[in-house]
Amino acid sequence: MGFRAVIHSRTVLVLGIAVSVLVPAITLPRLPQVTLWPVLLGLAPWVIGKYLLCPLRWRVLTDAGLSRCWHLRAYAESELLGLLTPGHVGADVWRVHRLARAGLGRGDAVTSVGLDRFVGAVGLAVFVGFAGATLPLRMLLVALGVGVVAVATALVVRRIRPQWLPSRPLPRPRQLAHALLLSTGYQLSIAGLLLGTVAATGHTVSPLAALGAFGASQLAGAVPGPNGASPRDAALVVALVALGVPWMAATGAVALKAAVAWVPALALGGISLVLTRRALRADRYAAAGVAAA
């Protein structure tokens, strides 16, 4: 079964929604005693950052004439699929798939998603720079290594598969600056969510220290894993413990952060996936009717 068939399968969709409901239902009762209102205060700006600022950043970097609503829906769908796949890889695959269906060439679609990821990483590295002098150097070295690999890959692809390269011009400096500004807002929302989940366990850390801990944990993202139980989550627990948060509270805060991420993903991405699936089915029926006529 191909990727498109899997994504649009009713069975897969039902299973995905079931997993989305079961993860928080199983995780939350196992957490230590928590106060929910700090989580809600942190969740509200994070939802705005994740499901509004991030899709707008992606749209600025894509510049394909697609509406804001299209990007909001496609991004929400990708986030739900990302939570269902190790390393969040399903999110990028779905965004490329959606862009290709909208008429972009495969190379342009891959470049769009890759640039969005890269700008997000640069924004995080710059923001984490306020938390300590050692983190930016490490992250910049990682970014430099990724950049070298990307350039080498592009050169190889240009030689053996030139049709895979983007045909559209790359974003202008003004677009990149706009995308970085949106990324900064998203980083602030991440710090807010992490502060809220830590506060829910009865402990506190400074906003810059929280963002530094999150940035450090991203270095473990090269090893994929399920949401809430990945090396990245484990690294975030260790980073919070290094800031003075007890092990049990740090584990609870990270588990709570992973669990609440399912709520907007299911509400926004799940509903949009259902609507997208119905629209595609209607298009197929209409095309079949025209062919029969």
Which descriptors would you attach to this protein?
single chain, 293 residues, mainly alpha, 12 helices, 0% strand, globular
Mean pLDDT: 77
Number of domains: 1
Strand-pairing-aware structural class: mainly alpha
Major β-sheet profile: none
* Rg measurement, Å: 20 Å
What is the assembly state of the chains in this entry? single chain
Number of strands: 0
Please give the alpha-carbon distance between the first and last residues.
Answer: 30 Å
Morphology? globular
Question: What does this entry show, briefly?
Answer:
This protein has helices spanning 3-7, 10-27, 36-62, 68-83, 89-101, 106-128, 134-160, 173-200, 207-218, 231-242, 247-260, 262-292. The chain contains 12 helices and no strands.
Describe the secondary-structure layout.
Elements: H1 3-7, H2 10-27, H3 36-62, H4 68-83, H5 89-101, H6 106-128, H7 134-160, H8 173-200, H9 207-218, H10 231-242, H11 247-260, H12 262-292
How would you sum up this structure, described in words?
- The protein has about 290 residues and is an all-alpha fold.
- The protein has one domain.
- Helix content is about 75%, strand content about 0%.
- The chain is built from 12 helices and no strands.
- Helix 2 runs antiparallel to helix 12 (about 260-290), helix 8 (about 175-200) crosses helix 9 and helix 9 (about 205-220) packs antiparallel against helix 10.
- It is globular and about 60 Å long.
